[in-house]
Each structure stands twice: as structure tokens, then as C-alpha cells.
Amino acid sequence: MAESIRGKSVIVTGASKGIGKGIARVFAKHGAKVLVVGRDLASAEAAARELVGMGHTASAFSADVTKLDDMEAMAKAAVDRYGGVDVLCANAGMFPQVKIEEMSPEAWDEVQATNLKGTFLSVKACVPYLKKSGEGRIVITSSITGPVTGFPGWSHYGATKAGQLGFMRTACMELAKYGITINAVMPGNIVTEGLEGLGPDYMKGMAASVPLGHLGEVEDIGHAALFFASREARYITGQTIIVDGGQILPESPDALSQM
Fold first, then answer.
1. In what helix (H) or strand (E) does residue 140 lie, and over which residues does it extend?
2. Looking at residue 259, what is its pLDDT?
3. Closest by alpha carbon to 163, among 117, 121, 197?
4. For residues 34 and 15, what is the distance between their CA atoms, to the nearest angstrom?
5. Around Cβ 19, how many Cβ atoms within 10 Å?
6. Poorest-confidence range of 109-123, 135-149, 243-257?
7. What value, to the nearest 5°, has the Cα angle with vertex 172 and ends 123 and 114?
8. What is the rounded distance in angstroms from the CA atom of residue 112 to the CA atom of residue 46?
9. 135 — phi, psi (to 5°)?
10. Domain boundaries, the chain
11. Tell me: the pLDDT tens digits for 14-31?
């Protein structure tokens, strides 16, 4: 599987930290040429330097996923630097926690623009080049929150993550004639800077709810994305994979105490 990734041109949005950085690391480790995309150029450059320091091929690009011009420039940069676009990992997202009664319309719109509209715009900008690839792949980072579960304070986030899957299911039909597949990885609780910011008590409580007994790592999501992007996954499109250590399966908190 890894061999089919070698030499591919891969764009990862939101790749300067968290899950996106992990996805970029996994692809780079398996020989892909990775464009590390983030709104903050300095952070994207730092992430790219880490990969280059490990002997991998990577470079940084600053772009805002809510702007079509930025996404088109991003896709063009991958073409100019790496000869095309073979894989788009639409990962950029945000999850500020605020409950409905306190949430402003502006806060709602900001999350929709980044998480949902940003997915659409990044895909739209890359499709012309993915069509030329012959093995075009799109991998969306969704979540268990929204499509499967809920959590107080994340109604706006959950709506976008469910929305991404609705977008994906029609996009897979529109893009199939070009040989482009589009699938989604749905992470559970993964150790990132954002999750750590919610505090040790939150992280401890979440780990206790996972049958495997620990939180996931960013590379766990990266490896799932790598599979969807591989030649071996060429007959899989419009599908999802949950990567959560079994978190959504217990019937109640008491279920784990019966193990």
C-alpha cells in the first residue's frame, strides 16, 4: 500500500498542527511530496521544515480555506512544485466550544465557513488537477461528533461534520467519471493541541470512555487517510471509517466496568 503513495503530490490543509500535521507526516514518511497548508505561514513553514529535516519532501503554503482564490492558488502551487495534484486531504477545521444560548450568528457562520465551505472550496479548486492524475483521491477529515455523537458546545461543529458527509456522498457520484474517489475519516478523541487545551480532566474522562483505554494519536488518522489515498483503495468511494478506539460502542459508561 505504501509503495503506491511514493512520489504522489499531496495537499494537506490545516497541516501546521494537530491531526493535519500528523496526516502530512504519515504521507511524507511514505514518500509523498507534501504541501503543508495553513493560514499562518510561519507555522506551516515550521511544520514543513520538520518533515524536510527527517529527509522527506515538503514545502509550506499559506492559504485560507474560506477563500476560493486562496484554494486555487494552493492547487496551482502544488502543480508548480510537484507536477500536479494526486491527493487532497481536506482537513482544515475549527472547534470553538460554545453552547447554543451563548452562540452568536457570527460564531456559527465562522465555523460553517471554515469546516464546511472550506471543504467544498478546497475540493472545487483541486478537481481540475485531480482529473489529470488518473488516480485522484480526496480524503475528508470529518468526526464522530455530529454524524454519530454529540457534545455540549459543539452544535455548530457537529453540523459541519455531518454536512461534510452529505457533501461527500454526492461528490463521489459527480467525480467518479474522472476516476476520483472521495472518502472520509471520522476521528474520535485524538491527542492534539486543541484537545489538550480542554484540560487534563477532560482528557482523562475521554480516555476512560474508550474501550482500548487510551486516546488516539494523530498518526492513527494519518494511516487511515493513507489507505483511502492508496491504489489498493481504488474501488472505495463515498465511504467513511471511524477511528476512535471503540469509543462510540459502549451502551453506557457502566459497560466498560463489565470488561
1. strand 137-141
2. 67
3. 117
4. 10
5. 30
6. 243-257
7. 35
8. 28
9. -140, 45
10. 2-242
11. 999 999 999 999 999 999
| C-alpha distances out from residue 163 to 147, 168, 222, Å | 8, 9, 22
Torsions phi, psi of 238, nearest 5? 75, 25
* Number of residues assigned to the chain: 259
Q: Are 253 and 233 in contact (CB under 8 A)?
A: no
Closest CA to 91 of 162, 35, 199, 19: 19
Q: DSSP for 6-67?
A: TT-EEEEETTTSHHHHHHHHHHHHTT-EEEEEESSHHHHHHHHHHHHHTT-EEEEEE--TT-
Burial class (CB in 10 A: 0-12, 13-18, 19+), 79: middle
Active site residue 157: yes
pTM over 0.85: yes
pLDDT above 90 for 199: no
The grid coordinates of residue 84 equal 500536479
Cell of 64: 485560507
Cell of 17: 498542527
Phi, psi of 23 (to 5 degrees): -60, -45
d(CA 53, CA 129) in angstroms, rounded, equals 29
238: left (phi over 0), alpha (psi -120 to 50) or beta: left
**pLDDT tens digits, 84-121:** 999 999 999 999 999 999 999 999 999 999 999 999 99
What CATH number is given for 2-242 in this structure? Answer: 3.40.50.720
- CA–CA separation, 24 and 257 (whole Å): 37
Q: What's the grid cell of residue 224?
A: 487511515
Query: Active site residue: 82, 129, 157, 235, which one?
Result: 157
